[in-house]
Amino acid sequence: MFTEKEIFKRDAARADCKCNAPAMGALGFSLVEVLIALTILSIGILGIMGLIGTSINSGAFAQNASQASNVAQDRIEALQSVAFASVHLSDAVTARTDLRRTCGAATGPANRPVYSCVPTNSITVGTVNPKTYTWTYTVTFIDLDGSTVADESDRLKKLDVTVTYWNSLSRSNKTLTLSSMITN
Q1: Which candidate, 35, 39, 90, 130, has a CA 20 to 30 Å from the CA of 65?
Q2: Is residue 127 part of a domain?
Q3: Containing structural domain, residue 42
Q4: pTM of the prediction?
Q5: How many domains does the chain have?
Q6: Each residue's pLDDT tens digit, 41-59
C-alpha cells in the first residue's frame, strides 16, 4: 500500500495540476454578456416586427388601389357601350341600371366643353370583406377640326372615370382617375 507521505504527495500534485482545470471563460457567460446579447437580439426582432407591420399595410393599400383600378377600368368599358351621342347626357331609365346617371350642363370653353356625370349607384367589391367604391365621370369634347367649337361633329370625346374609396389605414378617402378616348 501507499504510505501517508506518498498519498499526501499525490494529493498535492493533483492540486497543483492545471490539466483538468477549465480554460479562462469556459465556465459560461457572465450576466453582463447575456444581457448585451439579449439587447442586441431584441433590437433585431423589433426591427423585423416593424417591417412586418409595414408590409401588411402596404399590401392592404395595394389591394385597395388595385380594386379601385379594376372598378375604373370596368366603368370605362361599360361607358364605351353607351351610344356616343348620349354618353354625356342624363339617363335614369336605361336598361343597364349600373349606367343610370345624372349629367350636368357643359362647363369650360366652347372648344373644350366638359360634362360631369354622377351615376346613381356605387360598386361593391368582395363577399367576405366587401368594399364600396363610388364613381363619377366627366366627358370632354375634343375639337379635332380646329373650328374653336367642340361638338358631336368632331367625333372624339375623352372619358375621365374617378373612383373614390375609403382607406381605413390612412382614415381618409382616396381617389383614382383613369382616362380613355371614345370615338364615333
Answers
A1: 90
A2: yes
A3: 31-183
A4: 0.70
A5: 1
A6: 999 999 888 888 888 888 8
